[in-house]
Amino acid sequence: MKKVLVTGGTGFIGRNVTQSLLEKGYTVYAPSITPIESCEGLIQPQIDLFNKNELEQFLRDEQFENMIHLAWYVGSKCHSSDVNIDWLNLSLELLKAFKKYGGKRVLTAGSVSEYDFSYGWLRENHTPLTNGSMYGKCKAALYSISCEYAKQNDLDFKWARIFNLYGPNEKPQRLMPAVINSMLAGEDVKVSDCSKIQDYLHVFDTAAAIVQFFESNVQGAVNICSSEPVRLRTIVEKIAQFTNYKGNILWGAIPVSFEDPFIVGDNTRLTKEVGWKQKYTMDEGLEQTVNWWKTHNMTNMGSLLNV
Question: N or C: which end of the chain has fewer CB within 10 A?
Fold first, then answer.
């Protein structure tokens, strides 16, 4: 029986990783306080990861050989919050306990925010991991310590450095859902000047890449990204096309959040060594996402009317 522990298995990325693993025949253990829809092969124990005794008992009982660690703080001011330190400490304790009770293969979620953005074109093992944010520094510290720990303890260690992504179930306040929903509602759309060029990947492709990386023999850090530069203004304009929006786009109504104008990843390791192939073009992904929000909003409206 293929059995894997997935932390963060109910999140934006995690629910799609979980689905992909289930389709491949894994039994997935996804601890969660807020379970997702139950289905065959998915076990959702109610465990507080920050309770060391509870976590150790769970790992002792289940004896996992495989783990995908996606969970992290994504709440208010997540890039500057001290809570990142708590998640760094938890992740290290989790790694130690996982190994102690039979762990052999682990993939942990890293972030584009580890990189020094001033380099623009970001490559594993070349671009410095000197991002100034608390989030980036804690992720980079976890990567460095985990690498050394894996070497000393003969762990198959993989680090999925995830870039920008989009798709169904993204938080409504994020750029693409906010623009989509404003356009669908016929409201004025307030955005920054959207002059930045970034790297976006559909969440379905992101999840597929993570699972394929996890199952591969590749170790170390791998960028999970499209390697396709896209200007944010282009994304907004494409969404307007797919929503048939005729209203006002208020460019510059929102301040620019940071200064780096070009942030794009090199995905050579992902495509050449892991063998992953992107399925969703930007046009296909945006159209699918717009259609998902249309259905989602109609379903919610129907639920309200039936209350």
Answer: C
